[in-house]
Amino acid sequence: MNKTSMYLIVAVLVIVIIVGGVLAYVLTRPGGGGGGGNTMDVYAAEYKFGTSAGSMSSPGPTLTFTAGQTYTITLHNVGTMLHNFAIVTTKADGSTALAFSGAQIGSTSNPITAESTGSCTFTASTAGSYYYICQVDGHVSLGMWGTVTVNP
User: Fold this and answer.
1) Mean of the per-residue pLDDT values for the chain?
2) How many CB atoms lie within 10 A of CB 7?
3) Domain locations in the chain?
């Protein structure tokens, strides 16, 4: 093998490594390709929310998003009652004014059963302050809500 062939092989290998690195970065960064975007798990039980089954509170923790980004949230109902999850503009029992199209998992008429999960995907389109609630009758009044901050 001559010197020119070796240089050509090394150049091709360097290009392959660079392209592979760029693809790995693009596919794994938040909001990057890969179809998944940003994901978050939320846990629900009787009158509280959390980001893990062991860290639930009433009200729940603040959820923070970035405007223009797409998110997939999975709700894990680890309680014994029916629950759901919705990001709304008003913190009130029965509130149905979604802050973002698709930002709801289950509903009052079709809640998530105990020991079950459900997911939604939405785009946090507008910066501002919102709430997430359980829309099951009476649950907001009992503390089943949290705040949502969408940064610009």
Assistant:
1) 88
2) 10
3) 1-30, 38-151
How far, in Å, CA of 72 to CA of 27, rounded?
16
Rounded Cα distance, 119 and 32, in Å? 20
CA distance 120 to 71: 8
Rounded to whole angstroms, the Cα distance separating 99 from 120 reads 13
| Residues in the chain with pLDDT values less than 70 | 12, 14, 16, 19-37
Cβ atoms of residues 39 and 63 within 8 Å: no
Considering only CA atoms, which of 30, 48, 47 is closest in space to residue 39?
Answer: 30
How many residues belong to the chain?
152
Residue 25, pLDDT score: 61
Yes or no: say if 75 and 44 are a contact pair by the CB < 8 Å rule: yes
Question: For residues 53 and 43, is the Cβ–Cβ distance under 8 A?
Answer: yes
Chain centroid to CA 124: 10
Q: What gap in Å lies between CA 146 and CA 91, rounded to an integer?
A: 9
CATH code for the part of the protein at 38-151: 2.60.40.420
What does each C-alpha distance from 102 to 37, 43, 46, 124 come to in angstroms?
A: 15, 19, 24, 10
